[in-house]
TrEMBL record:
The keyword S-adenosyl-L-methionine does not apply. It comes from the Bacteria. It is found in: Cell membrane. This is ABC transporter ATP-binding protein. Keywords: Antibiotic resistance, ATP-binding, Nucleotide-binding, Transport. It is a peripheral membrane protein. Residues 7-230 form the ABC transporter domain. GO terms for molecular function: ATP binding. The chain holds residues 10 to 240 of 340 of the full protein.
């Protein structure tokens, strides 16, 4: 039969009080795709990612990963995630943290490869609670990669990075995406989405208002990307 999609949202809705953070979302992501979720502050990107990871339950509709419930895919070690979250407060070193996470997955990447991909070789012996914002972000990327997940989910992965760290990050993400892995990242920046994703999904007020290649979206006159650019 047909291989299940990596990600499948069907009529997904999630409200917080009166706010419909995700307001009826249908989205299919095939295996091997690199997809950008593009939207302004409050568009619903983080909420969509929470639904996808099973961290929040939809009020209506369904969200599946690899043809089953999110929890199953997460438990099977198919998913790695880098979320927007507070800094680590534990006293472990970067190496200890990455090794701990890797040890919970059935088929992790070698530690040296993770440190190299995340560009944190020189931080391996440092305590995770004593890193800068940008360094912390690179460690969170390492944590997301450590289990060698089939689906890598990155919520605003470049937010605190300087220009050089961004360049290195995107190069690593590309390297990781090769070989049939699926990547979903959220961003505020059209250019990042355009350059680094195969496909852009534009969210506005919890709805998908455009979905396609950057090329296609640029050429749809009066399209959502144009509106996004001007906003
Ligand atoms: P940003 O780019 O700022 O991270 P976003 O696109 O990720 O934004 P969400 O964080 O998903 O957007 O928020 C979508 C809407 O849902 C916003 O109006 C937000 O205020 C609201 N919201 C999200 N999480 C909660 C929550 N836990 N409680 C109340 N409202 C929430």
């Amino acid at each position: 039969g047909r291989a299940a999609r990596a990600v499948s949202f069907t009529g997904a809705v999630k409200s917080y009080g009166a706010v419909r953070a995700v307001a009826g979302m249908d989205l299919e992501i095939g295996r091997g795709e690199t997809v950008a979720l593009l939207g302004r502050n409050g568009a619903g990107k983080s909420t969509a990612i929470s639904l996808l990871l099973g961290l929040a339950e939809p009020d209506a509709g369904t969200v599946e990963l690899f043809g089953g419930p999110s929890e199953r895919a997460v438990r099977a070690g198919l998913v790695g995630a880098m979320l927007q979250e507070a800094r680590a407060v534990t006293r472990v070193t970067v190496r200890e943290l990455v090794a701990f996470v890797a040890g919970r997955y059935p088929d992790p990447l070698p530690l040296a490869e993770v440190l190299e991909l995340a560009g944190i070789g020189e931080l391996a012996g440092r305590r995770v609670d004593r890193l800068s914002g940008g360094q912390t972000q690179r460690v969170r990327f390492a944590v997301a990669l450590a289990g060698n997940p089939s689906l890598l989910v990155l919520d605003e992965p470049t937010a605190a990075l300087d220009v050089e760290a961004r360049r290195a990050f995107w190069e690593s993400m590309r390297a990781y995406a090769r070989g049939g892995r699926t990547v979903l990242f959220s961003t505020h920046y059209l250019e990042e989405a355009d350059v680094h994703a195969d496909r852009i999904v534009v969210l506005d007020r919890g709805r998908i208002v455009a979905d396609g290649t950057g090329e296609r979206l640029r050429h749809s006159a009066g399209g959502a990307l144009v509106a996004f650019d001007l906003a």
